[in-house]
Amino acid sequence: MIAPLIKAEGLERVYKLRRGPFGKAVPVRAVDGVSLAVMPGETLGIVGESGSGKSTLGRMLLGIDPAQSGAVTFEGSRMPALGTAEWRALRARMQLVYQDPLAALDRRLTIAAQIREPLDIHGLLPRDARSARVQDLMIGVGLRRDQAGSYPHELSGGQRQRAVIARALATSPKLLVCDEPVSALDVSIQAQVVNMLRDLQEKNHIAMIFISHDLKVVRNIADRVAVMYLGRIVEEASSDVIFQAPKHPYTKALVSSVPVPGKPLTGRMILQGEPPNPANRPSGCAFHPRCPLAGDICRTASPALREIGEGRMAACHMVEGADAPMAA
Ligand SMILES: Nc1ncnc2c1ncn2[C@@H]1O[C@H](COP(=O)(O)OP(=O)(O)O)[C@@H](O)[C@H]1O
Ligand SMILES: [Mg+2]
């Protein structure tokens, strides 16, 4: 049996949010008991509305944001503490790509210099082989050789994100965490960058955690999808199952709003009520105020994430499954 590349168990992260200069600090449960595992070479999509804790979870998986409870294991070993030499060494094996390439790049350095940086920092390859490696990386992400001397502001948004991805791949990482990597790009460019990422990931057998609020994007890249709502995973299954037969009412609503090319958008479920606010988490199932199926039990008892079929999990009192408590 193959072991997971990365595994998280019971991750929790609570931020203190102060309202106004004299306000009392309110706890915000950004990540509230998340467990997951990603196999080598696999792509896990993480979807959910803004504020559901996706970015916090991504940072925790890389050890950038320390877990208050729970643990992350990478290649079978416990994640070393942030800033230690062990952690820095591990960063060559797991990289982060986030939404804003301009913020990720140094505007005073050429893109070739920035793609080369991780090779110098981690002392990878003999010095005289590094320039050739930078060229290969640039071509691999669809940049032209003659763009090596360009500065970030001379490139388009899509080209900048390609440069960020080339830099992330420089150290041949085993895991790439992509947090909304195409959300800032033109819709016409998004698919190109996603396809490029998928090709590179398959070719190099890299595991990927692909975070997005946009299900359309995730469908094109993820093998498996975890749906988050207010800091918790509420449904997890293979991408096909999530998109063709979602079980959780929240997933159903999300999926029903994604257009399928060539088909009219029918049976769309519009989510009622307030968007989720982690500083004011509803009792019981956090989704119940917006759920069309909510019954009494949903207002009082928080549903656990449980297996509802082969390789699929959901946290919902109203979904049938082996040990589902049926609502009255
Ligand atoms: N550094 C921080 N300090 C305080 N609160 C934070 C911080 N980062 C995130 N949060 C809060 O945690 C919750 C989850 O945020 P985030 O992980 O960014 O969600 P998402 O990426 O799904 O939009 C939000 O309510 C956000 O305001
Ligand atoms: Mg985010």
Task: Using brief descriptors, characterize the structure shown.
four-stranded antiparallel β-sheet, binds magnesium ion, 12 strands, alpha/beta, globular, binds adenosine-5'-diphosphate, 328 residues, single chain, Rossmann fold, eight-stranded mixed β-sheet
Please trace the helix and strand order, writing H or E for each element: EEEHEEHEHHHHEHEHEEHHHEE
Number of DSSP strands?
A: 12
Q: Strands across the major sheet, in which order?
A: 6-7-8-3-9-10-12-11
Number of domains: 2
List the helices and strands and how they pair.
Layout: E1 6-18, E2 25-38, E3 43-47, H1 54-61, E4 69-74, E5 77-78, H2 85-90, E6 94-98, H3 101-104, H4 111-121, H5 130-140, H6 157-169, E7 175-179, H7 187-204, E8 207-212, H8 215-219, E9 224-229, E10 232-238, H9 239-244, H10 249-256, H11 296-300, E11 306-309, E12 312-314
Parallel strand pairs: 3-8, 3-9, 6-7, 7-8
Antiparallel strand pairs: 1-2, 1-4, 4-5, 9-10, 10-12, 11-12
The protein binds adenosine-5'-diphosphate and magnesium ion (MG).
Write up what this structure looks like:
Helix 4 crosses helix 5, helix 5 (130-140) packs across helix 6 and helix 6 runs parallel beside helix 7. The protein folds into two domains: 6-222, P-loop containing nucleotide triphosphate hydrolases (Rossmann fold), CATH 3.40.50; 246-328, no CATH class. It has an eight-stranded mixed sheet, with helices on both faces. A four-stranded antiparallel sheet has the order 2-1-4-5. The protein is 29% helix and 23% strand. The model is unreliable at 322-328 (pLDDT under 50). Strand 9 (224-229) and strand 10 form a beta hairpin. By secondary structure, it is an alpha/beta fold. The protein contains eleven helices and twelve strands. Adenosine-5'-diphosphate is lined by residues 15, 17, 28, 30, 48, 50-56, 278.
